[in-house]
Amino acid sequence: MSQAVPLLEVSDLTVEFSTRRGVVRAVTHVDISVGKGETVGIVGESGSGKSVTSYAVMRILDRAGRIAQGVMHFSGVDLIAASEDEMRSMRGREISMVFQNPRAALNPIRKVGHQIEDVLRQHSQVDSSALTGKAIEMLEQVRIARPRERYHAYPFELSGGMCQRVVIALALACRPRLLIADEPTTGLDVTTQKAVMDLMVELTRQQGMSTILITHDLGLAATYCDRVIVMERGSVVESAPSRAIFTAPNHRYTRKLMRATPRPGISLRDLLPEDGAASAPVAGALKSPSNGKAGTPLLVVEKLVKEYPRKGAPGSLRRVLQRKPASEPETFRAVDGISFAVNRGESVGLVGESGCGKSTTSTMVMRLIDKSDGTIMFDGMDIGVIAPKKFAELPLRKRIQMVFQDPTDSLNPRFTAARAIADPILRLGEVRGRRTVRARCEELAVQVGLPLELLDRFPHQLSGGQKARVGIARAIALNPDLIILDEPTAALDVSVQAVVLNLLADLKDSLGMSYLFVSHDLNVVRLLCDRVIVMQAGRIVEQGPTEKVLFAPQAQYTRDLLAAIPHPTFM
Amino acid sequence: MSNVALPGRRGASEHGLFAILRHARYILGENAVTAFAFALFMLIVLAALIGPYVVPYDPLASDTAAALKPPSLAHWCGTDQLGRDVLSRVIVAARLDLMIAVASVALVFLMGGLAGVAAGFFGGWTDRIVGRIADTIMAFPLFVLAMGIVAALGNAVQNIVLATAIVNFPLYARVARAEANVLREAGFVHAARLCGNGEARILLGHVLPNIMPIMVVQMSLTMGYAILNAAGLSFIGLGVRPPTAEWGIMVAEGAAFMVSGEWWIALFPGAALMIAVFCFNLLGDGLRDIVDPRRRT
Amino acid sequence: MLSLIVKRVAAAVPSLIGVVIVTFLLTRALPGDPAAYFAGPAATAEAIEQVRVKLGLDQPLYVQFVRYVGDLARGDLGNSLTTGQPVGQELRSRLPASAELTLLGLLVSVAIAVPLGILAATRPNSLVDHACRAISTAGVSLPVFFTGLVLIYVFYYLLGWAPAPLGRLDVFFSPPAQVTGFYLIDSTLDGNGEVFLASLKQLILPALTLGIFSLAPIARMTRASMLAALASDFVRTARASGLSPFTVVVTYAFRNAMLPVITTLGMVFSFLLGANVLVEKVFAWPGIGSFAVEALIASDFAPLQGFVLTMAIMYVALNLAIDILYGVIDPRVRIEA
Prior knowledge:
The structure holds three protein chains of three kinds.
Chain A: E1 8-19, E2 22-34, E3 39-43, H1 50-58, E4 65-74, E5 77-78, H2 84-90, E6 95-98, H3 112-122, H4 131-141, H5 147-150, H6 160-172, E7 178-182, H7 190-206, E8 210-215, H8 218-224, E9 227-232, E10 235-241, H9 242-247, H10 252-260, E11 297-309, H11 316-322, E12 331-343, E13 347-351, H12 358-365, E14 373-378, E15 381-382, H13 388-391, E16 400-403, H14 417-428, H15 434-447, H16 464-476, E17 482-486, H17 494-511, E18 514-519, H18 522-528, E19 531-536, E20 539-545, H19 546-551, H20 556-564
Helix pairs in contact in A: 3-4, 4-6, 6-7, 7-20, 14-15, 14-16, 15-16, 16-17
Chain B: H1 17-30, H2 32-54, H3 86-122, H4 124-138, H5 142-153, H6 157-184, H7 187-194, H8 199-235, H9 247-259, H10 264-291
Chain C: H1 2-28, H2 34-39, H3 45-55, H4 61-73, H5 87-122, H6 127-141, H7 144-158, H8 183-190, H9 193-230, H10 233-240, H11 245-283, H12 288-297, H13 301-329, H14 331-336
Helix pairs in contact in C: 1-13, 5-6, 5-9, 5-11, 6-9, 7-9, 7-11, 8-9, 9-11, 10-11, 11-12, 11-13, 12-13
């Protein structure tokens, strides 16, 4: 902590939004201070007001928002009294911001080099003749390979990680004193995430910059920040140095967040809050005897392949025009000959970064798309040869079900929760009659911990966690043998995730199901899965019991993945 | 995605028609302009339904002695060159114009909407064929094509309806196809397959209900266009023949007199046209708000 | 870049083929018997039959079609039955009149609609915004022929400011030396200020009518896409970087917003070409639209066929130009091609 006057001092900040339902207070009486050279993390779940606070500091709030009260000082300047012209001259030059979703944050029809020049030109940092040189220099600083070439690139030609580097270059071009990073790595692969965070930290430390890192990921905050401020529903609940927050949290909410974060060395139950009673799932109530054949293979996949024609593959016309042979093969192998098995009663994790083919694999096993080659055996039957359209009508369909990643997308906006849960029962179940179906829906709702009065609500009236429960209820409605879970908690807040993961584990035990759990989050997989399969570029790199793979990985890629997970040194 | 459950608007325990009506009343209450458009719409429908029975004069009765009289107490909108009362003709024409509009819109919804949904959902050959048909129609300036079709098929009202429907086909097909295409990859469609729904059932029971609202908005906006189209065709002598009372042909008949100062013959039918189309456009915008507030312009 | 153009041109070919086929089919289905008309009211059945053979109307449809395509390839669009003149020649001489009118109308509407839409989007809920929305909704509702008539009544009959709606030029003046066929351009090239003013006076009302008609969709689309651009993530980045309001609105928001507007122009052209016919009737404008309407009344199929074909080909060419323009502006389209 610096003893001098803090660089940024915010006291008693309150921000209001006028909405159709009246005035809403997004942020109430928030105090923040950032010293010179300090990195402060603001941690909170959705709705905590962390982003709104940063927008207020930069005075780029939405038209409907306004700063109702508070005092903000940046290096002696009163940020609230400053005129728009003064603020504009400070933005980008004194205080900069890096946002989530980097590709959308860049102008899609303007070369990235020109975008950096725009910022430089605006703040007259450099003469016009030296602008291009400086822009290329910035690209070099953010470690973009071949900066001279990439200067002329458009955002859609760059990967997500590269776009984020460009955004960082934009933000740091004029050497600001304070950098605000709003969820800068959300949506990026874990290895890219590490690279981007390390870069940001290195550049800011080099120039003695202060940073505010806004994130929902406690691990990230612990690893990269000196101090952490925890926000809940618009207010600050705790503010302390990182070590103190993580080893000895004070506030009830901080403790809940801490506990809910998946980390090595704990069990599933440890994720739940200490007074777990209220939010513990009720799944254990209905026990059914587990299948006597536990341990035998249920799903066996052998040499599975999925090929796609490469986008823009040279057609005859193009070949004629270009008059040169195609340099790349005409097809793209999303899944390149993988083999694995899932035993009864087992939970197998399928991990990898984006583009590794894990989602394609799960979709093929689900029989939603066709395979190109290989076999898929389920309970001794070859289901790979059955076309997807036909499979939907077979009784076999009941035995393999799925829980989807995005709870909002996977529920029909025109169906109530009850109707969504009833869908499989109506189509494939043997239950008939309105009342019987309704009774079964209620039974399922109890099993997944969904309050009965929510059954007649539409998806837009339910929270993320409630929608996830509806999706789970629908998946277990027909007592399937195998459930494929495609990143089921990726879109949920960490405290909700804790509850849902416990629910999934309990359901698996009480209903005797097997899981194929697809995820990019190794910490979650560690908690829920007995065995782990690691995929990269369509191939299996390593597979085996969870403890073995995650504690003593054989493959370099697995080691890289594990190293990329943020872990603070004191934990 | 907040953790807080959003309160259901008055508890969605009833769904279907009642919920829609209640929601509609809420929106109409909030938005004066839409309420006004709706009232106007009811007025036009009324004129169409009972108009012929309440008009002061017989729209076809000519009285050359009273020709070209400006608006007066006896004739609120004046008389035309054959001495017919303009007001009566304007009111009676509402029925014909409204009928043409409704028939065209219904026809194009069936043809274009269903073709577009199938094309967007199934892809492949269906998509290619529908696309080719739409592209061929779109290669023509639409009014010119309508002219050609009515000229080819003959001067009759049903041909105006057919021509308007054909000319609007690409728009409907395109909107329906775009929506179906997006929904095809939606999670709930995959989930529906997992629940054992066949493709046809998914199309009709899961996808179509999500597309209907946008189609309804489109239909309301096209009503206005259909009326303008029919009026335009009548203006150049296609479709409706004298002495039928139709707004477009009345404007055509009054055009020559406008230049010499007898403004009322063309003005009142023209104003009626304007008001009707304006009403449908406002209604379409209001419907869009009811159906999907995210799309507000 | 070249491959983009080639691709787009190749994609336009099937449309042209479709147009030719449809036009042929349409005009073969016209009511009335051209042979009887041509032969005259006093002709015997025999004479009519002779005329029919001469016109090739007794052949099966596909033979007629082949003949038709062959004629087209030679630029022969047949002869008008009423005037006896080759249709191609008539169309060529009348085309500049329609083109001048339509282009001027489009210019007027773009010059008003685009700034209006931008202003409305940058000042939400202000007077300008409400005016823009009102104009958009009202403009779409006005029948174009009615607008024309009202304008004539107000500006010619009541105020006497505009000349009589009797065509391109008052009888006292003679047209300038033919270079492009556009009176405004030709009179400028000629140095003839009087004729320039006279043609301009005649052009104002019809161009204004067309302009008002196409104002609404352009203003509406400009406003909507500017609003979307101003609310986008990359504009937020631009603001957070402290860029000046001008740079943000023009370089960042506007250029992106223009893309959907350019695509809308295609649809607007379709409406304009149709509205052209109506406006030419109201203002007695000697363009191809009035040519077609006269032919319609006389059931004269060759001019009608030529008219529909010409309009369609012009439209396909215009759409091609718009597509290519879009590709030039949007690198995402250009580079993937």
